[in-house]
Prior knowledge:
Blueprint lengths: L16 E12 L2 E13 L5 E3 L3 H19 L3 E5 L1
Parallel strand pairs: 2-4
Antiparallel strand pairs: 1-2, 2-3
The chain binds zinc ion.
Amino acid sequence: MKLTEGVKCKACRTGKLFKNEVSQKFEREGLEIEIDGIPAFVCDDCGQAYFLPGVGDKISVAANDLFKLAEVKHAGKFKAAV
Ligand SMILES: [Zn+2]
């Protein structure tokens, strides 16, 4: 599926996709982190987010770095943007 604006959503088959930024939360061993500003195409009907190729890898790298930081600092919540 080609990701462009106006493409029909695969999940609900009624909504259309538009470019947006989303945030994702991750939890690991009681630590919670959040990554903001992830570029994605989001359905205007059901809210399903579709990530561009390669973005998933960036998110997991950023999440791993944040978890490492969170472990060192022993604090509750960390945020980052990609
Ligand atoms: Zn949808």
